[in-house]
Structures are given as structure tokens and as C-alpha cells.
Amino acid sequence: MHLIAAALFAFATNAHAAELDGVTLPDTATVDGQTLVLNGMGLREKYFIDVYVGGLYLPAKMTDGNKAIQQDTPKKIVMQFIYSHVEADKMVETYQEGFEVNPAAASLQPQIQQFLGWMQDVKEGDQVVLEYAPGKGTTLTMAGKVKGTIPGPEFMRLVFSNYIGPNANKALRTGLLGQ
């Protein structure tokens, strides 16, 4: 009987986490009281350097990035940095590259500038988290510190497009969408 219980515990423990490139993320997360499921994990590389492992949490699994972006439902992206040190200006540059190819960015410049002003250096082991809660907005947390919240689904759609939109990094997007 103890052996069965131990086997069930081991199975249950392993069933509640996903791993990619040495980073383990839980299978569920909570945003605004709603439980979300880990939709997928992807590796973000830049210039052949592994930068972070990202995880996308949604109310239900889906492979359609546009649908996930458009839905006004809680969602979350967790980025676990595996590169030794990423400077704030590199974070800003990367976000700006994504915003530049998105026509919606033109009407959201004040929000973009506020968001980019929150960037800080991150190091290996730090997490950057984006959480969207309908009626509240998109909250940025960097290395355990809440930087702020920007209201509105329009800004969430802009930011989440950088990860799962048509112009997002292909490998990261594919992993986050579980494809």
C-alpha cells in the first residue's frame, strides 16, 4: 500500500510542472482569482544566445495566437531568464522592435513609454511576468517587484503580440502556443 501511495505521489508531483532547458514552470497559475493552464513553453534566443524560457498561461489550451491575444480573458506570460545579465536598454530595444511592426502601437504611445520606463536589468534566475486581468489591465513584475499596471485590453493585445503574434520570434511563439 505504501508503495502505491509513493508511486501516486511521484506521478502527481511530476504532473504539476513542465521543464524546458533546465527551467521548470508549474502547470497552472492564477490571475485575478482564475486558474490558468500552462499553454506551452518556448526558448527565446537572440544572436544564437539563449536568453530566457517563456511560459504562456491561458484559461484553456489553444494553438491560435491571434485568438489568444484577442480574448479579453486573464492571461499570463512568465519569462525565466537563463542568460547571465540583460541590461534594461536591451529589454527596451527588444520591446520597441516588436511594437514597431504593430500598427496598434501608434495609438498607445503614452502607455508604451510608461511600460518601457519600468524596464530594469535582469540576471540569470530572474523572472519577468506579464499578467492581464480584464477590467484591471496588464501588470509588469520584474525580479519579484511589481512595476505597475497599464489599463485596457488594447495594451495587453499589443504586448502579448510580441510573444504570440504573427511577427513574434518564431521559435518562442511556436513553443508558447504548444505547436
Q: What are the SSEs and their pairings?
A:
Elements: H1 2-14, E1 17-20, E2 23-26, E3 28-31, E4 34-46, E5 49-58, H2 65-70, E6 75-81, E7 85-86, H3 88-100, H4 109-117, E8 122-123, E9 127-133, E10 137-142, E11 145-150, H5 153-164, H6 170-176
Antiparallel strand pairs: 1-2, 3-4, 4-5, 5-6, 6-9, 7-8, 9-10, 10-11
What does this structure look like?
The protein is built from six helices and eleven strands. With 179 residues, the chain is of the alpha+beta class. The chain has one domain: Chalcone isomerase. The strands form three sheets. The protein has a seven-stranded antiparallel beta sheet with strand order 3-4-5-6-9-10-11.
Short description:
The protein is α+β, with helices and mostly antiparallel strands and 179 residues long.
